[in-house]
Amino acid sequence: MKWFMNDELPNSKPGFTSRPPLEQRLAHRPDVLARLHELADTLEQSVGDHATADLAEARVSAQVRQLAREVLEQWAREANDHAPAQVRTRHREAIPYGKKKR
Asked: What is the DSSP string of 33-65?
């Protein structure tokens, strides 16, 4: 009967490894971290000013769209930075792009 009455949350899901805190993971992505804080601020503001569900949804939806845009922009920049190195590793015969030497 004790297992039935246990109201403690499990520390982690089975097969789930512990992860570093979100703030630590996003330390090198300050724009994304700031946007997440703004999303939390929006939630708190909507609760604090007794916003209607429609208004709260509009506010949060706008923040989530902006977050998605910024995350994808960050991904694109990082993928673009890594692309030349990946090409050199995967295709050693590839000739680097650049002006021809005479």
From this structure: HHHHHHHHHHHHHHHHTT--HHHHHHHHHHHHH
